Each structure stands twice: as C-alpha cells, then as structure tokens.
C-alpha cells in the first residue's frame, strides 16, 4: 500500500505585521470559522465572535502627548550636577496639586530639608565638585552658551578634579578655565576676557588654571582662526552682509600666510572687518572696531598694514 504525503496549507504572510492569521488548528468555537488576531483582539472572520480582547501591550506603560506631561522614568542623567541629577528634592509650602500645606507639615518639611542638606555630600571632594559644577553652570548661563558646551565643561571639571588639579587652586578659576577650554576645543569665538568678566576671580588665576588644564589633560584645542571671530564682530557692529563676505575673504587670505603666526586672531579679524568696511564705504572708526574685538587701536593698525602689504 502506497501512502501519499499530505501537503500542509501554505502560510500566507502580509505586509501588515499587526494582523496575523493563525493556523487552521485554531478555529472558532461557535462556527469552526477562520480566526484572525490583530494588535487588539482575536475575532472570527465568519461569525464575528470576539474570542479574546485587551491583549498585553509589550510597549512602555507611559505616553507623553505634550511637553508638559511628566514621564514616570524621571529626568535624564546630567553631568552638570554632582549627583547626576538623581538626588531627592524636597519642596516648599505646597503639595503636588498646588494646595497649601498646614503649619505642622511645613515645619516637618523644613526639618527634612535641613537633614537632607546635611547628608547631601559624603565627602569634602563631593562638596567641592558640587560647588565647582554650580560655578560652571552659572558661567554658561551668563555667557549664553549652549547646553552641549555646558555639559562638556562640567565633564572637563570632573576630569580636573579626578586628576587632582584642584589642589592649591581656586575652584572658581578651574570652573572658568573649564568653560574657556571647552569653547577653545569647539572653536567657539569666546575671548578669555569675556570669561574673566563673568567669573569671580582675576584674569591671572584663570589664565594659569587654563594652562594647567591644557598641559595636564592635553586638551585637543586647535588654534583659533580669525574667520571664527568675523560673525561676532559683524553682529556687534551691526554691519551688512557684503562687509561680512569681504571680511571673510580677507581673513581666509591672511590664514594662508604667515600673518597669523604669533598674532592674536581677534586682532586680525578686527583688521579684516575694518578694511572691508572701508572698501564698502561704511562710516566706522578704528576705536569702535578695536573696542568690539577687545584689542588696542595700535594692534588694529598693525594688522591692517600687514594685510595691505600682502
């Protein structure tokens, strides 16, 4: 007797992954019809019987439809705080719904905040880290820097503390040097004088702290280019686009020569802007350009003469 091999039904697939057709072994308990399962329920295609509903959702249990809704996962970790932003914060005066608390509850919260503040830092190094990162955040806010540069500066301050570079130096000076070093590494047109004006220490300490960071941590800080200061000067002096384009051409031509060797890039940029303004017929004085670039008038004239000699 020859027994023939039975062929099974071909499994049909579709492009819709939410709809899955089960095998013929699973049939409707009422009419033995065809059963299909989608992302929500299992139904019979013949009689419409709902066999199963409210399937398990394997996705996240929260959804945020706007920026005001808070997710249960909490805020993301950040390098801008000593505890990565996961410490407990005890509020004041109101509950989660904005209702006023009783006097007894407010006194209890005040005692909890006091004890939480006392046990906030486990060591003196952690307290210094919190103070330094707070100074970095303050400087980044005062100088209107981006969050990316702020976080990089905080990470640079952490590296400086881990390498024991804070010993014998001011925390404020290391914080200001971290801001300036991060801007140098990202080629952000920020002068050291701008950081010193916003910092709480004198210029010599910030300069020495930056030299220490650059030497000990080997910062990948490329030399500043005069072209990076052109947009800042054009915006400060409120000049038009033609002057900016011509100043960029002069700065790029100067970068291809030995003019920029040993010269302050902001001074070269100021000379390029002044020459471009003169060629376009703009009425602007040398002292105005030099003041915007924070260089002396003598430096501006020297760089102007060297540019004209190229």
UniProtKB/TrEMBL annotation:
Residue intervals of the Cyclin-like domain: 134-215, 228-309
Positions bound to Zn(2+): 28, 31, 44, 47
GO cellular component, one term: transcription preinitiation complex
Single Gene Ontology BP annotation: transcription preinitiation complex assembly
SMART domains assigned to the protein according to its UniProt record, in alphabetical order: CYCLIN
Comp. bias (Basic and acidic residues): 80-98, 112-122
Keyword annotations of the record: Metal-binding, Plasmid, Repeat, Transcription, Transcription regulation, Zinc, Zinc-finger
InterPro entries xrefs: Cyclin-like_dom (IPR013763), Cyclin-like_sf (IPR036915), TFIIB (IPR000812), TFIIB_arc (IPR023484), TFIIB_cyclin (IPR013150), Znf_TFIIB (IPR013137)
Sequence repeats: 134-217, 228-309
Top-level taxonomic group: Archaea
Region: Disordered, residue numbers: 69-122
Summary of the function given for this chain in its UniProt record: Stabilizes TBP binding to an archaeal box-A promoter. Also responsible for recruiting RNA polymerase II to the pre-initiation complex (DNA-TBP-TFIIB).
Annotated family: Belongs to the TFIIB family.
Protein name: Transcription initiation factor IIB
Organism (species): Haloarcula marismortui (strain ATCC 43049 / DSM 3752 / JCM 8966 / VKM B-1809)
Biological classification of the source: Archaea, Methanobacteriati, Methanobacteriota, Stenosarchaea group, Halobacteria
């Amino acid at each position: 007797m020859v027994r023939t091999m039975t062929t099974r039904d071909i499994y049909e697939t579709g492009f819709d992954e939410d709809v899955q057709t089960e095998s013929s072994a699973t049939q409707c308990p009422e009419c033995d019809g065809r059963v299909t399962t989608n992302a929500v329920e299992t139904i019979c295609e013949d009689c419409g019987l709902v066999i199963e509903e409210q399937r398990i959702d394997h996705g996240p249990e929260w959804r945020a439809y706007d920026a005001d809704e808070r997710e249960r996962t909490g805020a993301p970790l950040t390098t801008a705080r000593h505890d990565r932003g996961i410490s407990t914060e005890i509020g004041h005066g109101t509950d989660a719904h904005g209702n006023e608390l009783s006097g007894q509850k407010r006194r209890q919260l005040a005692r909890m905040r006091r004890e939480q503040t006392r046990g906030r830092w486990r060591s003196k190094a952690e307290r210094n880290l919190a103070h330094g990162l707070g100074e970095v955040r303050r400087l980044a806010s005062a100088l209107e820097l981006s969050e990316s540069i702020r976080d990089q500066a905080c990470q640079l301050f952490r590296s400086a503390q881990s390498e024991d570079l804070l010993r014998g130096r001011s925390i404020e000076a290391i914080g200001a040097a971290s801001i300036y070093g991060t801007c140098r590494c990202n080629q952000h047109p920020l002068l050291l004088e701008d950081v010193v004006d916003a910092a709480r220490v004198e210029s010599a300490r910030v300069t020495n702290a930056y030299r220490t960071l650059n030497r000990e941590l080997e910062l990948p800080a490329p030399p500043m280019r005069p072209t990076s200061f052109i947009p800042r000067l054009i915006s400060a002096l409120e000049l038009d686009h033609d002057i900016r384009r011509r100043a960029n051409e002069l700065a790029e031509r100067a970068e291809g020569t030995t003019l920029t060797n040993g010269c302050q890039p902001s001074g070269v940029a100021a000379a390029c802007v002044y020459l471009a303004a003169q060629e376009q017929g703009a009425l602007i004085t040398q002292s105005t350009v030099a003041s915007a670039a924070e260089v002396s008038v003598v430096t501006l004239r020297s760089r102007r003469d060297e540019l004209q000699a190229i």
